[in-house]
Design brief:
Distance between the termini of chain B: 81 Å
CATH class of the largest domain in chain A: Alpha Beta
Bound molecules: cobalamin
CATH topology of chain B: TIM Barrel
Number of strands of chain B: 19
CATH architecture of chain B: Alpha-Beta Barrel
Strand order of the largest sheet of chain A: 2-1-3-4-5
Strand content of chain A: 5-15%
Number of helices of chain B: 18
Largest sheet of chain B: 9 strands, mixed
Order of helices and strands of chain A: HHHHEHEHEHEHEH
Number of domains of chain A: 2
CATH architecture of the largest domain in chain A: 3-Layer(aba) Sandwich
Oligomer: heterodimer
Helix content of chain B: 40-55%
Structural class of chain A: alpha/beta
Shape of chain A: elongated
Radius of gyration of chain B: 24 Å
CATH topology of the largest domain in chain A: Rossmann fold
CATH superfamily of the largest domain in chain A: Cobalamin-binding domain
Low-confidence stretches of chain B: 12-20
Mean pLDDT of chain A: 93
Largest interface: A-B, 17 and 20 residues
Shape of chain B: globular
Number of domains of chain B: 1
Mean pLDDT of chain B: 95
Helix content of chain A: 55-70%
Structural class of chain B: alpha/beta
Distance between the termini of chain A: 48 Å
Low-confidence stretches of chain A: none
Number of strands of chain A: 5
């Protein structure tokens, strides 16, 4: 167990394997070291991302869905992913790699439920998205300011109350008025919502849980990248 | 031989329990004390540490912060720090029990002391029944639940948002809900907490019913103020709380903790946090209006740390419930908790087990106000019609449990014991003939038949039987009389407010 390893001497496949294991175990510092080592060997940032981090998070996601991993473990894995991304993200942009995606997520005005949207944030981060979570009780102005500041491809709206759900439409209407609806993918979630409601208010999709939120966000990013 | 003509028992309707027949239960069995005095004191001490050193956030409501400051509470930003002396000073101002008025005086309820009362599920956006499945709730569903609650002798309170009437516009739906409680039931009900305006409308309607002076003497509303744990009261709840406290209407201050997410992944710590939050809210209500009736609330369970979903009926939540009741008693406050909680989606075996896991402790711990006592499914997302009917059967059984054992002469039945020879039976003794209808609680929905008879009857399970009962109940419903002048006045108020709000 306590055998010393020198990551500089590891063959590349083993380095990726170690990166995936450390990601799984939520070891942020180690993941960062391994990302830097891979880059130092001249690998493309996109390769490091897909063969190391994303491949690792795929295993995390699968084991979470299968009930092997617990939320706190996924949280640790996601924050390790995030720390690897801090190094990779600027390089990915420089090298013109396909975008992983940027998201802004928040609970609408009048609503303070945030456990669900925190889980979604965490899983999106784990999938490589750059996520800004603007918390609870957000007015149209709050969303507009966050969109202005972070220029996301994906906007996530959360509501758990039937009394605050209508405000999601208010936000979408405001996006239309501001002429920015088209460049955003609007995903909505919260236990009382449904596909029909999402359609009715003009959102792109409803996601029933965090796993679906990841798949849906990835699907929309793929469409965007293909169109680009 | 001449004899008096008597009426035969034949053809007599089966003895359905009359709404009037059963009143609010008194807790006549020992209270289950899980922690000893020193352990309980430890929880109290830790919560004092939280109150004085860690603080409670009063979010987005400058007026509340001003009230706290005026009463000597140290406020930093939006965080309030209470000293143990301040807490004690204000919490002791709250009454240990009070009466909530009902429009039928026979149905007014004592909240606190040895009294218990059972109220329907609160808040679900969806409803479900066996025929139509799960769907969004409507005003019609809301009314049907009010009727079921009215018809059950084991539900003493009409509740609040039994289900969200999602077919109505949000800014005015509270008016339709309040009016439905008044029109279709004569039991006490709950006020709306979604805004200060909604709370004011609720107060206005009970003023119309009882007079503005009468409701200051005894509250006609009880309303659910949830604390957004950890350690935060939000502006919506604070503004409703202020309206109710000023009108001396009862509020239930309920920290709502899913341990692992909104509290630590530990029970003692969760209890200390909950206690700090509840006492902060209760002290704040007393600062606004000394002596205003409050209930110490607890809604505690945990998230499933594997998936993140709330879990209902967990053993840890039972432990916490017993101790929460002890804490409320320590401060001489009425206590709210419990309920027939289930994560199950239909009233199946899982639902039954889960529900009883929380309801039995609620009974043994002596919860004064049991919200969600009937109809809860799907982690609170769905109000189940058949579940409601089935839960009521179990509540009936608890009424009997709460009475304890009759130790009178009749309770010993020595005459019966003496008269039956060894190996004989008691089925026909005078004592049995006097007592057979009431001696043992008998569910009208559970099946006690031999299996052949059950099969011959169509082999129906409880879900099916409850569905049939549901149809019968709704068909049999007759509204309690409502004074036409009062009705007109209430309707006029509702229409006027609707016009003003939609204005
Ligand atoms: C925890 C909780 C609270 C906590 C919230 C704490 C917090 N920090 O979030 C507190 C105590 C504050 C609270 C308060 C209230 N609550 Co509440 N609450 C709940 C409860 C029990 C669980 C919600 C939860 O966290 N679930 C776990 C998470 C993981 O699931 P989730 O939120 O559904 O999220 C998942 C998906 O929906 C999806 N998702 C969610 N958001 C998003 C967003 C995007 C972009 C995407 C893609 C996906 C997505 O992915 C998530 C992860 O899988 C629900 C009942 C329930 N079973 O849902 C009631 C519930 C939602 N609450 C309800 C009510 C009524 C209230 C109050 C009004 C009660 C009161 N009188 O005080 C207040 C309102 C406060 C306010 N202004 O918002 C009702 C609402 C129904 C309705 N009528 O509309 C419910 C259904 C319970 C009930 N029967 O009363 N509540």
């Amino acid at each position: 167990m306590s055998d010393e390893i020198n990551i500089q001497e590891l063959p590349i496949e083993e380095l990726f394997e170690l990166m995936q294991e450390d990601l799984y175990d939520g070891l942020a510092d180690e993941v960062l070291e391994e990302v830097n080592e891979a880059l130092a060997r001249g690998l493309q940032p996109f390769e490091v991302l897909t063969q190391g981090l994303v491949a690792g998070m795929d295993i995390v996601g699968k084991d979470f869905r299968d009930g092997t991993l617990f939320v706190p473990e996924v949280l640790m894995a996601a924050s390790s992913m995030k720390s690897g991304m801090t190094v990779l993200r600027p390089l990915l942009i420089e090298t013109g790699a396909p975008k992983m995606g940027t998201a802004v997520i928040g609970t609408v005005k009048g609503d303070i439920h945030d456990i669900g949207q925190n889980l979604v944030s965490m899983m999106w981060e784990g999938a490589g998205f750059e996520v800004t979570n603007i918390g609870i009780n957000n007015s149209v102005e709050d969303y507009m300011a966050a969109i202005e500041a972070h220029n996301p491809e994906i906007l996530g709206l959360s509501a758990l109350l039937t009394t605050t759900m209508p405000y999601m439409k208010t936000v979408i209407d405001a996006l239309n008025e501001a002429g920015i609806r088209e460049r955003l993918t609007v995903l909505v979630g919260g236990a009382p919502l449904s596909d029909a409601f999402a359609e009715e208010i003009g959102a792109d999709a409803y996601c029933r849980d965090a796993a679906v939120a990841v798949d849906t966000a990835k699907k929309f990013m793929q469409i965007r990248n293909e169109a680009a | 031989m001449v004899r008096e003509r008597r009426h035969s028992r034949r053809g007599r309707p089966s003895p359905t329990r009359q709404v009037e027949a059963i009143t609010q239960p008194l807790h006549q069995i020992p209270v289950y004390e899980l922690l000893d005095a020193s352990a309980l004191d430890k929880i109290h001490q830790v919560s004092m540490e939280i109150l004085s050193e860690v603080g409670i956030l009063f979010m987005d409501d400058p007026e509340s912060l001003a009230i706290l400051r005026e009463h000597g509470v140290r406020v930093e930003g939006e965080l309030a720090f209470f000293t143990p002396t301040q807490i004690e000073h204000y919490v002791t101002m709250a009454p240990s029990e009070f009466t909530q008025l009902a429009r039928n005086p026979a149905r007014s309820l004592v909240i606190g002391g040895k009294h218990m009362c059972f109220a329907p599920v609160y808040g679900p956006p969806f409803v479900a029944d066996r025929e139509r499945g799960r769907r969004l709730g409507t005003l019609q569903d809301f009314r049907d639940f009010v009727k079921l609650a009215y018809l059950s002798p084991y539900i003493h309170h009409s509740g609040g948002v039994i289900v969200e009437p999602t077919d109505l516009p949000t800014p005015t739906r509270h008016l339709d809900m309040l009016y439905s409680h008044i029109k279709y039931s004569d039991k006490p009900f709950m006020g709306s907490v979604m805004s200060a305006g909604n709370a004011a409308d609720s107060v206005k309607m009970v003023e119309i019913m009882f007079g503005s002076e009468a409701i200051r003497q005894q509250p006609a509303l009880i309303s659910l103020i949830n604390i957004s744990s950890p350690r935060r009261l939000d502006d919506r709840m604070l503004s409703a709380l202020k309206v109710y406290a000023r009108a001396r209407q009862a509020v239930i201050i309920t920290p709502f903790i899913l341990s692992g997410a909104m509290g630590p992944a530990a029970i003692a710590g969760t209890l200390a946090q909950q206690n700090a939050e509840a006492l902060a809210g209760i002290a704040f209500a007393q600062m606004i209006e000394p002596g205003t009736p409050v209930v110490y609330g607890s809604f505690q369970t945990n998230v499933d740390l594997q998936s993140g979903s709330p879990v209902f009926g967990s053993p840890e939540s039972q432990l916490a419930l017993y101790v929460s009741a002890q804490l409320a008693r320590r401060y001489h406050l009425p206590f709210r908790s419990g309920g027939m909680f289930a994560s199950a989606k239909i009233p199946d075996v899982q639902a039954g087990y889960e529900s009883i896991m929380t309801m039995l402790p609620a009974v043994l711990a002596r919860v004064n106000f049991v919200l969600h006592a009937a109809g809860w499914l799907d982690g609170g997302l769905t109000a189940g019609f058949e579940k409601f009917v089935l839960d009521c059967e179990v509540l009936g059984a608890f009424h009997t449990l709460l009475r304890g054992i009759d130790m009178s002469e009749n309770g010993f039945a020595m005459e019966s014991i003496r008269s039956v020879p060894p190996g004989g039976h008691h089925l026909g003794t005078p004592h049995t003939l006097r007592n057979f209808r009431t001696a043992f609680y008998r569910s009208e929905l559970f099946d006690y038949q031999p299996s052949e008879a059950w099969e011959a009857d169509g082999a129906h399970d409880a879900y099916e039987r409850a569905h049939e009962r549901l149809q019968q109940l709704l068909a049999s419903y007759e509204a309690p009389p409502l004074d036409p002048a009062l009705d007109t006045e209430l309707q006029a108020f509702v229409s006027r407010r609707k016009a003003e709000i939609s204005g």
